[in-house]
Amino acid sequence: MIAIEAEGLKKKFGDVEALKCVSFKVKRGEIFGFLGPNGAGKTTTVRILTGIIKPDSGKARVNGYDVVEETLKAKESIGVLPEVSNAYPDLTAWQNIMLIASLYGMRKRDAEARASELLKEFGIYERKDAKVRGFSKGMKQRLMLCMALISDPEILFLDEPTSGLDVQSARMIREKILEIANEGRTVFLTSHNMDEVNMLCDRIAVINKGKIVTIDTPERLKSRVGGNVAIEVSFGGKVELNMENAEKVGDKYVIYTADPYKTICEVVDFARKSGAEIVSINTRTPTLEDAFLKLLEVEG
Amino acid sequence: MKCLAIAKKDIMMYYLKGPVVIFGILLPLFLFLAFWVGRDLPLNFLMAGLLSMTVFFASTSVSPVIAPWEGQMRTLERLLVCPVSTSTIIFGDVIASLSFGICMSLIPLLLALCFGFTPNPVIIPAILLAAFCFSCLGLLFSAYPTNLPSTVMMISSLVRFPLIFISGIFIPVQELPAWGKAVSMISPLTYFTDIARDSFGMNSFLPIYLDFIILAGFSIGFLVSAIKLHEHALLRRL
Predict the structure, then answer these.
(1) Helix (H) or strand (E) holding B221
(2) A35: nearest Cα among A214, A259, A155
(3) What residues of chain A lie within 8 A of the CB of B75, using their CB?
(4) Gap from B2 CA to chain A (nearest CA, Å)
(5) Is 0.90 exceeded by the ipTM?
(6) Among A78, A101, A116, A282, which is most exposed with the fewest C-beta within 10 angstroms?
């Protein structure tokens, strides 16, 4: 069953085409990663799907509701953690969370029970009566996630949920995302953290310049990087390694290959012939970041 | 009621903000003192003027600062992703603003009672309607999509001060020249001041029922315009 569906979404801001026919489907219970460089159209897509802005053309349905025609019903079924958003600094954590509960039309008793449960789960219950102004960034983000979850939504939109957080808060949020997905709920995750996306997502869509470049599982995306293994080799001194698929990254070369043994022999032969000293040589599988950069490179 | 939740949030967040205290409480007080001190004016004339100024300044001091502050604090997107329409947000802001105007109106009313004046009870619905009308007017000031409260306060001052001087607070409309009378008709404050004068035992310029009808007309016009303009402005604040 489909939880989120975008079909031919287009959006222009003045002369700038932010989205050029964006289409994808997210299945129920899936953690769907949405990746792209800055200005690629991620936030515009999320804002359309969460009913904040209207597309110029195209359709989007969330939990079966058209986000333009049935905006409020669509919004009632989702929880959102916007990227650039804050809780009210002069209100307490409890007042903030109860405000959101009221806006979702929750009954006071249910809202209080759910708020207590969430605040305890995220380790900020003891500070519930403190004004948010005095909270650390990690605490604020955990509170924002509590606010997104207060209505017990079927679908959760998380825009950069762990950006700039300490390790402990980031890990807590990641664990919670996995828990939510295990409960059968859908998570639409936007992030720049490739390890996080790789660790959490069932499928990933890559958007660039307002167009979807690809949609696939993390493992399939990684396998597209010209080979199954990446060999990292570092030389002492300046060396020009003229081999197919070799890319200079910092003080080392990265070579993607389907035949690591043959490639390592070639590297060693090269070092012998040119008199270059090999400082280190490692093999690793290509990362999601490699795949992401490769895809953007191909797209220009 | 979702708009009441928004109003409650506005009351907790914005009632004690600097511009609200300065423009909603201190300014009408100082304007009144400047008008009163050293002049031999009848007390009922002064009380009606003070009441008009207080309701006007207090009701137009909260609603203009909410949207720019929400944009500046980056709380707006959090609010917009909730299942509430722009109209609900606007209504919530209006309720918070008119509540401030109504509360502040108690000060001149109590002062009048202390001086031995008992205004006609018609002043109560007039205060409610005027506070609503002026709150909606205040929202129009913040329809310009800036996230700087100071810019919005400057725009609102540019409108509010001329209105004070053309609305018969300092000089009754009856005593204005023909062009002055014509200009005063474009101000909603004129009609509330007219009702206030009547309720404090002076002659009104227009029949009271007509003042109510015109104030109601202004209220509807301001509210509809505010909703339309804010539907566009809110998104430009993100």
Answers:
(1) helix B208-236
(2) A214
(3) 85-88
(4) 5
(5) no
(6) A282
